Amino acid sequence: MTPVIRAALGRLVLAIPMLFVVATATFFLQQLVPGDPGTFILGNEASPAEIRLFDAGLGLNKPILEQYGTWLSRAIRGNLGMSWTSRSPVTQTLLAAAPITLSLTVLAIVVIVCLGVPLGTLAALHAGAVDRFFQAFAGFAIALPNFWLGVGLVLFLAVDARLFPATGYASLSDPAQWLHALVLPVLALAFGMTMSLALQVRSAMIDVLSRDYIRSLRAAGLSRRSVLFRHALRNCMAPVVTTVGFQLLGLLAGAVVIEQLFNLPGLGSVLLTGVTEHDVPLVQGAVLLFAVFVVVVNLLTDVAAAALNPRARGR
Fold first, then answer.
1. pLDDT at 195 over 90
2. 103-276 belongs to which homologous superfamily?
3. Residue 303 needs a FRET pair 20 to 30 A away by CA distance; which of 9, 211, 236, 276 works?
4. DSSP H helices in the chain
5. Domain boundaries, the chain
């Protein structure tokens, strides 16, 4: 069994108890939310009898452990229950929202990698005033909240210049409109993390370029381009891949804010709707799906790091 496969299997084995803990914690923490779901959903005008009948229809009159067992047994089979407010299957709601969040995060990570790696490499190769300006600008970009940037992009590029739509989402069936609608959300989400990755690439590249074997390669007559791309950049990719994995998790969290700002009906909007409407099954399903995304991202990150890092492959 290769080290890469061993790393993947190890992550999958840890994923099962992690998902169980997340599902269990989410279920019981939801029980601590004050207020009765029937009163919240039906309104204060509902009579006590109507509220009791509503709660009984949801199974809320049963013991808490029995409710948990019923929900868990269904969740294992892929049935996350019915939304209390919309009365539609939670699984169906999440599957409709997931492509929007995935589109946003995947495009953002593509922008982060395609811009962050070249910018960090250029900064490492140009010491002095250029490097100092880059570090100052990157620090500003990282500190800038993405929702502030999003508001600025909407004001200047959507409202004033009318180059992009301010809100809304287009189906992937029309790729041009889909990409056009996601330009501003992706820029707002990816800007700070692009600079963060660039700083990571800069530090890793400076460290690799100072190694003895790089000087030996240069002394042997290899071209600067060959030394840079075939040896230096390749050897600094392992920590960069780990950074990208962490950033992808951060993108999932940042998508909650960006989806609200740009009115994108993704998983972040679904989760916030479930919280504000006291829709417990919807919140539990959304949190569980986010946990699955975390497991998948960690798995891919570990496998990529093991494939790129000789020391990781040797463990």
1. yes
2. MetI-like (1.10.3720.10)
3. 211
4. 3-30, 37-42, 48-57, 64-76, 90-125, 129-143, 146-153, 175-209, 212-219, 224-226, 233-235, 237-261, 267-276, 280-308, 310-313
5. 3-76, 103-276
